[in-house]
Specification:
Length: about 400
């Protein structure tokens, strides 16, 4: 006879999708304004956030201390989010690739006028309408350089529902610390599918509102220059609307401006401002989530992955060891801008295979722009772009074929 025995392997675990986990992270991060326009696969993020907020963020008198707005389109949604961020609210919007395409001009305003907000991109297959119900990692360049002109953005890349929660929380601190739009790039596979996880560790740290001057600060200082690099890190000080001091107000504009926020087309003012924005981006390297690195003893080859490609890569590492007696190191990238660890990883290996779910090797392009030529030439690419989630066998076979084919 057959006997059944109860297993406790999943005891204490939770099941949740990435969008719900991100929504929970937003609530814990103190979001008060969320704006969105329905689009697959991101719609459930703000829908779930609305449910969470109605349950946990209603005052005793029955009034809501938040606003969740379904806008008429993506342009309106991101415009509302940026406006709310300017006013001092912790704000966000969620969308997918087509929405990011529409939001470009407002994103540039947020970058140049230095206004914090958080933008979730739950990526799907493009271009155009593409395959709305399939998954891909094809918005990397769109996010890293969103909008026209010289722009560089902070992008967080979760690989699990735990990181969807944590990075959603962290994104608001980063947005306010650096006074800029911050992206969280998930994908359909992670965002819409259910995953098993340990219960989340709820953050206990105080919110980081960044360099915000109060009326008392201004009374002590006498005045301030909105876009001056006082501390040498590229991050200026700001005031919030309603600060009760005559020096608190300033013009916010997407056109040229000087350190005092006055309109200016002077070349020296423009150049100084753009160089400071670049310095701010360089400062962000020290504050974004660092990579997770597994160095294999004696390995000459390394994988570099990010997002949901992670799960295929860690299984592929086992396959390569078991079937080919090949040890491969692994660098899991978790954010843009890259940290100092990237060059160190390339220095320690003869070849580094960047595994990504898009046709053109977008993350590889971004990495090549950052590395010196002698390191960039070590980069190889494994690309999967069918719309179906990447699997370990694909990664293993691609690496073995490349090595046998002499692509080294």
């Amino acid at each position: 006879p057959y006997k059944c025995q109860r297993m406790n392997a999943t005891k204490g675990k939770i099941i949740i999708d990435g969008n719900s986990a991100a929504a929970l992270g937003c609530m814990f991060a103190g979001v008060t304004v969320a704006t969105w326009y329905p689009i697959t696969p991101s719609s459930s993020l703000c829908e779930t956030l609305a449910d969470y907020m109605k349950e946990y963020r209603i005052e005793k008198d029955g009034k809501a201390n938040f606003a969740i707005v379904q806008a008429e389109d993506e342009l309106a949604a991101v415009g509302m989010a940026i406006g709310a961020g300017w006013a001092g609210a912790r704000s966000m919007t969620s969308t997918a690739g087509p929405g990011i395409s529409l939001m470009q001009e407002f994103i540039g305003l947020g970058y140049y006028a230095e206004i914090p907000t958080v933008i979730f991109d739950i990526t799907r297959v493009g271009p155009s309408t593409g395959l709305p119900t399939r998954t891909q990692q094809s918005d990397i360049l769109s996010l890293a350089y969103a909008s026209h002109g010289d722009t560089k953005h902070i992008v967080l890349v979760p690989a699990s529902v735990e990181e969807c929660f944590q990075m959603a929380y962290d994104a608001f601190d980063l947005a306010e610390r650096f006074q800029t739009p911050v992206f969280v790039m998930s994908d359909l596979d992670l965002g819409m599918n259910n995953w098993m996880a340990d219960p989340f560790k709820y953050p206990k740290e105080k919110f980081d509102r960044g360099k915000v001057l109060s009326a008392d600060d201004l009374k002590r200082l006498g005045s301030f220059r909105r876009y001056a690099d006082v501390d040498g890190d590229g991050i200026p000080y700001r005031t919030l609307p309603g600060t009760n001091h005559p020096a608190a107000s300033y013009f916010t504009r997407g056109s040229g401006h000087n350190e005092n926020a006055a309109y200016s087309e002077r070349p020296d003012d423009y150049k100084r401002n753009m160089e400071r924005l670049n310095k701010k981006y360089e400062t962000a390297r020290q504050h974004v989530p660092p990579p997770e690195i597994q160095y294999a003893t004696g390995a000459k080859i390394g994988f570099l992955g990010f997002g949901t490609s992670h799960w295929a890569i860690i299984e592929s590492l086992d396959q390569l060891q078991r079937e080919y007696d090949t040890s491969v190191s692994y660098y899991r990238l978790r954010a843009v801008p890259f940290t100092k660890h990237l060059a160190e990883f390339f220095e320690r290996h003869d070849r580094v295979y960047v595994v990504e779910q898009n046709r053109d090797g977008q993350m590889g392009m971004l990495i090549k722009l950052e590395l010196p030529a002698e390191l960039a030439r070590k980069l190889r690419s494994i690309r999967h772009y069918s719309g179906i989630p990447i699997d370990a066998r694909f990664v293993t076979d691609a690496l073995v074929a490349a090595e046998k084919g002499g692509q080294n």
